[in-house]
Amino acid sequence: MTTSENVAIFDDLVSEITQHYYRARILIAIDGADEQASRGFADSLADAMTTKSWRVFRSTSTPRGAARDVDLSFPRHDRYGGNEDYSRLRDIVSRFREGRLAAETPDSDVPADAMLIVDGRFLLRPELRGIWHFRVWLESDMRLSDESLEAQLRYTRDGAPRATADAIFDVTNAQVPVRVWADSC
User: Fold this and answer.
1) How many angstroms separate the CA atoms of 39 and 42, rounded?
2) Chain CA centroid to CA 23, Å
């Protein structure tokens, strides 16, 4: 796949999202077992959104090397159960919706037509599903530890993230995501 074909994949996804949500603060979830692929996919989508003149904010459960003006990270979850604490993520989402990510910095003002792209595991779980405007499910053949595999199987069985996704991509080769047309549309 050429670079222009890869760019076209994200441009098409941007068009799909903005067709339905062209004026508002939009929340997008990128969910997948492979954290590096999820983060890379979310970063590429953010780049494509920025190219189309959208103001984009990023939130992630994977640690970043250098902190941005406003810390939008939240604790990662490796297990799937009923007692995970998503209060930090819910706080970020709430502040984004209110238009202010942090009280002390003017750079944290959120325009009325901005996007918050969040990547992490288990984001399409039933108790979080309703906060997202657009949901992306990423599949790959990544090897998982026994414990992580068990959690992922339980999640896909009980949480049904694939069935509730607005878009599904195979990121077995993270540099070349492929759209899978088996989503809920």
Assistant:
1) 5
2) 19
CB atoms within 10 A of CB 63: 9
Q: Is 120 exposed, middle or buried (0-12, 13-18, 19+ CB in 10 A)?
A: buried
DSSP-derived secondary structure for 97-131: HHTBS-SS-GGGB--TTEEEEEEETTTTSHHHHTT
State the DSSP H helix or E strand holding residue 82, giving kind and residue range, or none if neither: none
**Tens digits of per-residue pLDDT, 47-99?**
999 999 999 999 988 665 444 556 787 777 777 776 677 888 899 999 999 99
Query: What's the CA dihedral at 183, 130, 10, 181 to 10 degrees?
Result: 0
Which residue matches tokens 């984001």?
A: 123
Q: Would you say the C-alpha torsion 132, 70, 35, 44 has a positive or negative sign?
A: positive
pTM beyond 0.85: the answer is yes
CB contact at 8 A, 161 and 155: yes
Joined tokens for residue 124: 């399409």
